[in-house]
Amino acid sequence: MTDDHALAAELATAAGEVLLRTREEHAGIDPKELKDLGDRVSHDFLMAELAKVRPEDAVLSEEGADDHVRLSAQRVWIVDPLDGTREFSEVERDDWAVHVALWRAGNLVAGAVARPAKGVTYSSADDAPAAGAAGAPLRLAVSRSRPPEFVTRLADHLGADLVEMGSAGVKAMSVLDGTADAYVHAGGQYEWDSAAPVAVARAHGLHTSRIDGSGLVYNNESPYLPDLVICRPEVAETILGAISTVKAN
């Protein structure tokens, strides 16, 4: 049987291939239709594959009805079939992703974030440290379309540069690939937005937490998990201290 790390990577990569074919085959349709189609085909693919290879496991998907049987399950797959629908619908963009994570008995134990248009899948299967070194000034990953006011104030306080990019998974993995030093989100998210990025980030030695420094807890009755920090470990104290100061002012 394929181990869970490898399976997460295989599923995320394969769902990404489905999405690439979908985008190619339906080029020219209305962007909203393409977003909806992408969400649906990737969700259907992942649900079918998980039912086949891990039939006893529960699933929490952004695009599926929330079956609360997961609350008593020992193993729950947490998936975002298409992270960054806006970017997916803009055919020249590659900053969208597929998230696949496994929660087991209280902890995230495996995950993968695929960037299909880049041909890259980040996985919890290895523990290589993040690329590069912390920038001077620090670099914060931020949304290209709607930079949150809180992160803008945080960057001003730190004297940091803002690095604009698309989906949550892309921003999280930018810390791993050395494009950014931290991804701070305080504007509201759900478990599927961060579970796979957090599983991968942890495997590679990055710091992950809520913005108050507390732990990230998954498979809750409500999947709303509003805030997140993923950063290089050597800047975690600086980032969390700055967040506390900015929140207080």
TrEMBL record:
One of its GO terms (molecular function) is 3'(2'),5'-bisphosphate nucleotidase activity. The keyword Transferase does not apply. Keywords: Hydrolase, Magnesium, Metal-binding. It catalyses: adenosine 3',5'-bisphosphate + H2O = AMP + phosphate. This is 3'(2'),5-bisphosphonucleoside 3'(2')-phosphohydrolase. It comes from Janibacter alittae. The keyword Magnesium applies.
